[in-house]
Design goal:
single chain, 127 residues, 5 helices, flat
Length: 127
């Protein structure tokens, strides 16, 4: 079954692929490494996917009916998102319950998925 990727379903394909990759990495980390690695991968993946949703939401609001001060709105949202993400990462890293390597792997799920989708699209286009 070939997946047709276009502008209408790109976000859904990225999210579904990232969730599938996150499940795979978490289970593989649990089986081949440790519980700490698996928890780190799970936490990092959840943070990455949540941030991806959050960025899309802010961009839709900015590019849709414009807020009164769109630039200020975007800046405040960006700083808020970055601060909340930083706090989560601080507590995850300092808790000692999560593997730092697993966290890095989990934080990369969106990037890995976008690279795989880009290669898939290039191969389908004959490039």
């Amino acid at each position: 079954m070939m997946i047709t990727i276009n502008e209408d379903n790109l976000f859904a394909v990225i999210i579904k692929g990232s969730l599938a990759l996150l499940v795979f990495l978490t289970l593989a980390g649990w089986v081949f490494f440790s519980q700490r690695f698996a928890l780190g991968a799970l936490a990092g993946g959840c943070i990455a996917i949540t941030n991806f949703f959050w960025i899309r939401n802010v961009l839709q609001r900015i590019l849709g009916p414009l807020p009164v001060r769109a630039a200020m709105y975007a800046q405040v949202r960006f700083i808020g998102r970055l601060s909340i993400t930083g706090l989560f990462l601080y507590f995850i890293i300092t808790s000692g319950l999560f593997s730092l390597a697993g966290l890095f792997v989990g934080l990369s799920v969106i990037v890995i998925n976008i690279i795989v989708l880009s290669l898939y699209s290039a191969m389908r286009a004959g490039g």
